[in-house]
Amino acid sequence: xxxxxxxxxxxxxxxxxxxxxxxxxxxxxxxxxxxxxxxxxxxxxxxxxxxxxxxxxxxxxxxxxxxxxxxxxxxxxxxxxxxxxxxxxxxxxxxxxxxxxxxxxxxxxxxxxxxxxxxx
Length: 120
What we know:
The protein is 0% helix and 54% strand. The chain starts with a strand and ends with a strand. The chain has strands at residues 3-7, 10-13, 18-25, 32-39, 46-51, 57-59, 67-72, 77-82, 91-99, 107-110, 114-119. The chain is mainly beta and 120 residues long.
């Protein structure tokens, strides 16, 4: 079993920066991808960025060039550096660990979420 604990959310002004952290406890495997999602009230949770154990990254187009995901495998921690924040980035951000299975459907683990609010 894996538990994910996020930290670092809060309030920022437009153009500012925040850094989110997500610490994973339990056994982490090299097949585990990690990601950050965000969700607005009444909206579907959407993928923002992801990173493989080996460091390959993917970014949603609206955050490309502004957000950077990284992970420290020795610490079982993933980070999200958010720069040039916009009011549209306001959401609850969730850390995710996706454990690949031979069946093709991953097992997903989620953090509790951290609020990010960007004022204009």
